[in-house]
Amino acid sequence: MNANLQFDFLVDKENNTITVKREFQAKRQLVWDCYTKSELLDQWFAPKPFTTKTKTMDFREGGYWRYAMIDPEGTEYWGRLDYQTIRPIENYTALDGFTDASGEINPSLPRSKWDVTFEEKAEHALVHTVIAYNTLKDLETVIQMGMKEGLTSTLERLDELLLTFK
Predict the structure, then answer these.
(1) Residue 31: which H helix or E strand, with range?
(2) Which residues form the Activator of Hsp90 ATPase homologue 1/2-like C-terminal domain (predicted)?
């Protein structure tokens, strides 16, 4: 990651949230597309050395993205993002959860609400994400699972992908 680009990862245990502010060297429209189109998500949405594959993508209010992160040995870790609200190129909200291969939410792992906002910042895009959990225990669980490290690696992959569009 370019050290001059903004990257904040803030944990608020009083409100059970993680706030991530991340700047990218690309226009807002391109960054929006990378977050909302499966053919682009599949190229970056997993920490190294994992890869991602989309099972289903229906990017609309009431739709969902069902995907797997795959480790180098081929083990699949399934997730689902249920889109609640969409304001094109500006914001979307969604419920995120771990699932089994058939798409059933795993109730023993935390579910969260993502509120993702896209802004112009000169020639760059700034993505402001607030991830809210139901309980402090859920928040602490994802932190212990490596949320900060995983998200940092994942967003670095997006940096790499964005460079291919120059």
Answers:
(1) helix 28-36
(2) 26-162
d(CA 166, CA 162): 7
What residue spans define the domains of the chain? 7-163
**Residue closest to 155 by CA, chosen among 15, 60, 26:** 26
Return d(Cα 125, Cα 106) in angstroms, integer.
Answer: 33
Query: For 124-161, what is each residue's pLDDT tens digit?
Result: 999 999 999 999 999 999 999 999 999 999 999 999 99
pTM: 0.95
- Integer Cα distance of 140 and 135 in angstroms: 9
Q: Which CATH architecture has domain 7-163?
A: 2-Layer Sandwich (3.30)
